[in-house]
Amino acid sequence: MKNVIVTGGAGYIGSHACKALRDAGYVPITFDNLSTGWQEAVKFGPFEQGDLLDRARLDDVFAKYKPIAVMHFAAFSQVGESMTDPGKYWRNNVFGSLQLIEAAVDAGCLNFVFSSTCATFGDQDNVVLNEESPQFPINSYGASKRAIEDILANFEQSHNLKSVVFRYFNVAGCDPDGEVGEFHQPETHLIPLMLDAIAGKRDALTIYGTDYDTPDGTCIRDYVHVCDLVDAHVLGLEWLSNNKGSRYFNLGTGTGFSVREVLDESRAVTNKEVPHVEGPRRPGDCTKLVSGSERAMTELGWSPQRSTMKEMIKDAWHWHQTGHYDK
Ligand code: UDP
C-alpha cells in the first residue's frame, strides 16, 4: 500500500490533493482537526481526526499506516488575520509543523511534500519571481511558512528528511466533476466572495485598495487552478520516490490579474454584474505576486491544463451553483 498522510485533507486544496493521489494509485490518509475543513470533503481515503499539536495522536497515525510520505497542507492561511493574531500562525503553523516533522522522522518516514506560499517572498514590485528570489515576508502568514521551510532544511541536515516545497501563488477553481470544491467559513478569498456577491448571497464585494502602483490601482495576483496545483504535488511525490532530493518549486503561471481584471472576467463568464465597492487596503497585502514556473515544468514535467482565469471561474461557478458542504 502506498499510504500518504495528507494533513489538511478535509480542506480546499487538501481534498483536491486526496483525489489526485487516489487517482494516481496512492492511499491518501487525511489527518485533519476539522477546524476549517469539512468531513464531507474526505472521500478518497481514510480519515483520522487529529490535531498537529497532539504529538501522541500523530505517532499513532504514523504507526497505524506506515506512510511512504507526508503531504502537509494543514495551516491557517489568512493574510489579514495573521496580522492581527500572529500567535495563532506561529503556534499552529510553525509549532504544529515541527511536531509533524518530528513525528515523521521518528517513524522513519523521510519524504515530505510541503505547501508553502508566495507570501514568503513579500513585496517585490514589478518583478516576476522565481525560486531564487529573495524571501522577505511582510505578513505573519508568510513568515510562518518561511520558518517551516527552514525547519525542513535543518531536518534534512540532521535526519536526511527529503522535502519538496511548493510555493503557491493564488489557488482558484474547483474539481470540474464537482466532487469537492472551495468552501471556507469564514470566506476571505476573492473569487468565492465575488461569486457569492454575484449570486446575492452576501453584500457587495469590497475591493481592498485602489491606490496600488499597478495599471488599474488594484493588487495583482497569479492564479493557478487547484487541479493543476495538486497534479504538481503528485509529481513532487514521484520526484522524492525517485530519490531526486530536496527541491523548491514555485507554482505560478507567469501571468498576473488585478482585482478589477478578475471582476471583469467573472462578469464575462457568469453574464452577471459583480456588485462591488472600493475600500481601503488590507494590511499585509503585497502589491504584486507573480511567478514563472519553468523549474516545475522542466524538472517535474508539470504541465498546467486548466489555469486560465476563464476556466478557473467557470469551475468555481459550477461548484458554487451545485455543491456545498453542510457544516
Ligand atoms: N481581495 C479584495 N477583496 C476581497 C478579498 C480579496 O479586493 O474581499 C483582494 C486582495 O486584496 C488580494 C486579492 O484579492 O489582492 C486576492 O486575495 P485573496 O484573499 O483571495 O488571496 P491572497 O492573495 O490573500 O492569498
Automatic annotation (TrEMBL):
Its EC number(s): 5.1.3.2
Note the CDD domains from the entry. UDP_G4E_1_SDR_e
Swiss-Prot/TrEMBL cofactor(s): NAD(+)
Question: Which intervals hold domain NAD-dependent epimerase/dehydratase?
Answer: 4-252
**What keywords appear on the UniProt entry?**
Carbohydrate metabolism, Isomerase, NAD
This enzyme catalyses: UDP-alpha-D-glucose = UDP-alpha-D-galactose
In its UniProt record, a GO molecular function of this protein is: UDP-glucose 4-epimerase activity
Keyword Isomerase on this protein?
Answer: yes
Name the pathway it acts in. Answer: Carbohydrate metabolism; galactose metabolism
One of its GO biological process terms is: galactose catabolic process via UDP-galactose, Leloir pathway
Top-rank taxon of the source lineage equals Bacteria
Q: Which NCBIfam families match?
A: galE
UniProt record similarity statement: Belongs to the NAD(P)-dependent epimerase/dehydratase family.
> Subunit structure, per the record?
Homodimer.
What name goes with this protein?
Answer: UDP-glucose 4-epimerase
Organism of origin: Pacificibacter maritimus
